[in-house]
């Protein structure tokens, strides 16, 4: 059982894999719009807490297309590392980009769960990284194959989490004013009923 502490902004690096429209077309494990919202929320979270981000794409010129614009717009200064293999961890440039951050806690989000997410996760664990898979910011071809891939990664030592848990774990205290505004805005925009509640509380409930 892992005894690692809760996430602090100084600890993780975020690896975004193949968040491209051509691959999103193949997602059948969840609603694609919800998935896209989750991926955008995670990218915004990384920006709000100043996490280093490594982005990798594949087949962007022949099938998959570039990083989806709504995600790229959140991270305009992050250039994607284009590769030809399914396992991003078999691309020396991806591994070097992660290693250069000096961080050993890895957050992973991407498409598709069965291969381009699970393969680098398994490889990074073998290389000694503590890996958390942001499961609701990953999509698989079917619900069953997505779930089986998550189970395999968890059995190998990966921790399953969600984008909202990542944000709340990094924030933890709503009096952390330096990230409060961004964190709250992300929750309001992407966290469904919880976000609606925060908006309501801000706009409608006034202290006596």
From TrEMBL:
Coiled-coil regions listed in the entry: none
Q: Which UniProt keywords apply?
A: Hydrolase
Keyword match Hydrolase: yes
Q: Which SUPFAM superfamilies match?
A: Isochorismatase-like hydrolases
Keyword Hydrolase among UniProt keywords: yes
InterPro entries documented for this protein:
Hydrolase_YcaC-like (IPR053152), Isochorismatase-like_dom (IPR000868), Isochorismatase-like_sf (IPR036380)
Gene Ontology MF term list: hydrolase activity
Q: Which residues form the Isochorismatase-like domain?
A: 13-163
Q: Which PANTHER family match?
A: HYDROLASE, HYDROLASE YCAC-RELATED
Mind telling me what this protein is named?
Answer: Hydrolase
């Amino acid at each position: 059982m892992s005894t690692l502490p809760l996430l602090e902004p100084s600890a993780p690096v975020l690896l975004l894999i193949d968040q491209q429209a051509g691959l999103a077309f193949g997602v059948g494990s969840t609603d694609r719009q919800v998935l896209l919202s989750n991926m955008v929320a995670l990218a915004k979270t990384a920006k709000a807490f100043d996490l280093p981000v490594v982005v990798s794409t594949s087949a962007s010129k022949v099938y998959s297309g570039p990083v989806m614009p709504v995600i790229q717009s959140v991270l305009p200064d992050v250039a994607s590392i284009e590769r030809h293999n399914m396992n991003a961890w078999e691309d020396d440039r991806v591994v070097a980009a992660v290693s250069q951050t000096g961080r050993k806690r890895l957050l992973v989000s991407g498409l598709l769960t069965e291969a381009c997410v699970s393969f680098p996760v398994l490889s990074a664990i073998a290389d000694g990284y503590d890996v958390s898979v942001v499961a609701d910011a990953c999509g698989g071809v079917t619900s069953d194959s997505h779930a089986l891939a998550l189970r395999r990664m968890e059995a190998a030592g990966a921790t399953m989490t969600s984008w909202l848990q990542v944000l709340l774990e990094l924030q933890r205290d709503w009096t952390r004013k330096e990230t409060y505004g961004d964190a709250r805005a992300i929750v309001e925009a992407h966290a469904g009923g919880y976000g609606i509640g925060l908006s309501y509380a801000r706009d409608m409930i006034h202290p006596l």
